[in-house]
Amino acid sequence: MRQTKKGELSLLAIQKIYLSYSIPCFPTLLIFIPTTGVLQGIYAKHYGISLATIGTIVLISRISDALTDPLVGFYSDKIKYKTGTRSHLIILGAAALLISAYFLFNPPNEVTAIYFFLWYMAFYFSWTLFEIPHLAWGGELTDDADQKTKVYMYRYIFGYAGTLCFYAMPFLPFIEGAELGPDVLRWSVLYAGLMLIPSLWWCVNNVPSGKAIVDEKIKAINLKMICNHIVKDKNLKRFLCAYLLAGAGAGMWVGMLYVFVDVYLVEGDKLPLLYISGTLSGILAMIFWCKLSILIGKRRALISALIGVSVCTFMVSFLQPNGSYLFLFLIIVTVYFFYSALQVLAPSILSDIADRNLMRTRVDQRAIYFSLYSLATKCNFAIGGASAFLIADLYGFNPTETVFSDHNVFGLKLSSSIIPSLLLLISTVFIMAISHDNKDLLYLGSEDHT
Predict the structure, then answer these.
(1) Mean pLDDT of 31-59
(2) Which end of the chain is more exposed for a tag (fewer CB within 10 A), N or C?
């Protein structure tokens, strides 16, 4: 890579690193995004597994994440401490992700709840092995707070591109039916496998491992030490509270969107176009949020976005069958526009918080911090989606039926619109509480300069 004077990397070389780091997110998100809502809807509609059963399975599987995610984070930091790289777990996780996705997306005709449970568990554990060290790696590519936002912007743009590819599959001529169904799931695994192997090879061979922080005074890193550091980090706790609330609200909305549009609005044939339009909106919005965060600070930009997505999510409750398609389209596109800020700015803010912790403790705990972020992300979509399913089921909403009472519809709107909107709005309180005094500004970057 070409370098400028004083050994600094050229702008072109830096861009190459960011792009190389982000490329594997395209195939991994291609198979991850269906599990945030579409997969559950397909298992309910096409394989006859009840919403309550799916919701329970998802909730149980998330309990295991409370143990596995922090352990993966801990060992990722420990391996980085000893070897100087995080690539080992990333490669292992990517391989396991493809295998588990194949069985999860290709169930037998007489699929059982146990089959879904086992492969769903395996898929999410594999995702943990890949996602946590890869997220932590991104924060190690630069010390500049604004550049961190750019790193994660690239990462999620490629992720959104993978999402876009999944939603575009129903338009392929060899896909059975112009809808997000079982055939789309099967083809998505094939495409992901073809792209993941070369993209991961390119990433590992072109992205530096980042600085290895070694404090000679520390003879051993153990979980007790790490836990003590985490408990004392008030900004981390405020961040996680905000992210859990906002993510749970988004998880409820995303988890019910397939059922809401396909079953209640009877607009299932338009879902691929809606998802594609929303994803394109999110990709363009990431550039906007990245630039806005530099102008007004990450916290202010994120708070603005959360308020916007809260309002748009609440507007979903006004949608009716045979209503205006334009209204539905605008809501979906606008939600994606605002929500993309959370995906870009949240990991950037967390990386800043991890940097501040590193300076204070002299122990690199970045992967541990991102393991909590990963756990929160999975809990957001899983618990949020499962709770939404359980609430809808409590009100008697059955996706296999075609006629619904007012009581059924209220339960659907409560789980897909009203509660998510409130959770998103409440989360802004915790974002405001993240410290931004002069001392923290040394670590939180371009925060509130105006």
Answers:
(1) 79
(2) C
